[in-house]
Amino acid sequence: MASLSIDRRDRCHRDDIRAFTVGVEEEFVLVDPATGRPSLTNTTVAAAETGTALQLELSQCQIETCTPVCASIEAVHREVRRARIAVIDAAARSGSFPLAVGVPIWGPPAGSITGTPRYQRIARYFGAPADQVTCGCHVHVCVPDRDLAVQVSNHLRRWLPALLALTANSPIAEGIDTGHASWRHIMWARWPSSGPPPYFRSAAHYDDIVARLARDGQILDPAMVYWDIRLSAHLPTIEVRISDVPATAEETALLASLVRGLVITSVAAIGRGHFAVPIPRSRLRSACRSAARDGLCGTRLATAVPGRRDGRHALARLLCHVRPALEESGDYAFTRDALAAVLTSGNGAVRQRRALLAGGPANVIDVLSRLTAEGGAADDFQRGKVTRPAGHERTGG
């Protein structure tokens, strides 16, 4: 796989591209449909669904869906939509509704930790950070060689701010605008193992750092490695975790397409002997904080290239960077048009702020409910065809 080449002079076969399988995890906040307040019902919701595996999360008002392994972005889009329908149906049987939002509009009571032994242990050890409720989207891409995977991680680090700006979906907490497009990113930084990953020399270097975190009491187990990019502890994948859970299934498919394109492009570059520039973590942290604050709308998004760039410019550069891989996989037209739709209509943060101005927190919850469930028939996933939320003109979304 390391010899893969996808530049325009030496294209790889589409079968090689499809070896980069993808899986997506989405986290949701469960709310009372009448009040929009968190509903502490995740164990009941998980038990109510028999066709799709639902995972418990740290707070009782959180639930997670996981797609099967997918060989195409079309399949990712279909499976994300299917999982959202499943969790909506399961929640309805328990009198709640899942919202695709990075942080809840209203927080749950303190101490609402899921009652599993592991989560209770985390809460006792880390205290206040365990009480926060944050919902992300994690994209897994198959890279079975761990030494290759850490080199891919090094290449992906520079694009973390752009991916965060694209998916920012948590500007409102406790009913007010926080001043950040992704308040989730700011809250998540309270965990000692969060943030951009280090620059790794090898898989052994990666393992040494994880072991040091455990020795120092910064993590209780490998699953608490909360870097924005990490090697899965139990799957042959690299996992990109920087993103808020996107507002719509289509935006999640867009994120998965860009992440897979980055992985494929990085593997090709490594095969040609091109290794990533070791950007300091402090610089990446600063860039990600700027992206969390400004989202798509700011002008202060730092990147790996000297100078100041806004989110739109960074995303245009990202699309150009992965275009050869996306053209080979057949995903370029969808990705281009889905990205254009987000830049035109706004991501979750933009829509939430418009809804807040138009009708307060209750209107935000109404808009998020619609966006979470939005999506046409699976056959509507066609090259160059993207969907728009019905009624977005009325709500400002």
UniProtKB/TrEMBL annotation:
SUPFAM superfamilies given in the database record: Glutamine synthetase/guanido kinase (SSF55931)
GO biological process: modified amino acid biosynthetic process
Superkingdom in the source lineage: Bacteria
Pfam families registered for this protein in UniProt: GCS2 (PF04107)
Enzyme class (EC, first level): ligase
Keyword Transferase applies: no
Keywords: ATP-binding, Ligase, Nucleotide-binding
A GO term for molecular function: glutamate-cysteine ligase activity
Assigned EC number: 6.3.2.2
Reactions mediated catalytically: L-cysteine + L-glutamate + ATP = gamma-L-glutamyl-L-cysteine + ADP + phosphate + H(+)
Purpose: ATP-dependent carboxylate-amine ligase which exhibits weak glutamate--cysteine ligase activity.
HAMAP family assigned to the protein according to its UniProt record, in alphabetical order: Glu_cys_ligase_2
Family: Belongs to the glutamate--cysteine ligase type 2 family. YbdK subfamily.
Name of the protein this chain belongs to: Putative glutamate--cysteine ligase 2
Species the sequence originates in: Nocardia fluminea
